[in-house]
Amino acid sequence: MTYDEIMKSLEELGTEQTKKTFIRHGAKEPLFGVKVGDLKKLVKYVKKDQELALKLYNSGIYDAMYLAGLSINPKLMTKEDLQDWAEKANWHAVAEYTVAGVAAESEYALELAREWMKSEEEIIALCGWNTYANYISITSDEELDLAEIQSLLEQIEQTIHEERNRVRYVMNGFVISVGTYVQALSPDAKKVADQIGKVHVNVGNTACKVPLATEYIKKIEDKERVGVKRKTCIC
């Protein structure tokens, strides 16, 4: 399918109800309102065409941007491509899922995560924290910098409640990621989860809730799945 054909399909798949739901969660116009399940049906038409995927993201249309993230080959992404994606992310879902998922599976995962986490721009910082959290979920413990991750847990413990709104959300997610995916540091993550307790995030007029890190990690423990890595973080 061509770019124009993909766009036509997205427009046809979109609904006003889904569009309103996305906007209520923070999405910015333009968007068609296509459910993720329907987006996944189009992946096979984009997956082997890197240039098409890049063009879709550059459209600035949320549905096309998300489809690009599902379809792109992260290993072919340049650092410049990823930086461009982070800068063009126009709401938190694009930053936390599309950009972070692709960046985590790229050759520049740690380099960019470390840069982005320090950004004064909230949307870029979201990309950074979730890139690192995703990277943890797909990388063997032997390849991880455990000392750095432990230091980041300490930073979260000390600063999370004074951080920017969505940064609090992704920091909490980072603690959960360490607690569930890094066997050696799971006890440390649990201690931090206990210390930070409930994390308050303004999620607007939605039913979304911030997961309680202690409870989430406990559920994974009960299933005896602590340390079990994911095959991909793109979804």
From TrEMBL:
InterPro entries: ARM-type_fold, DNA_alkylation. It comes from the Bacteria. PANTHER family: DNA ALKYLATION REPAIR PROTEIN (PTHR41291). This is DNA alkylation repair protein. It comes from Cytobacillus citreus.
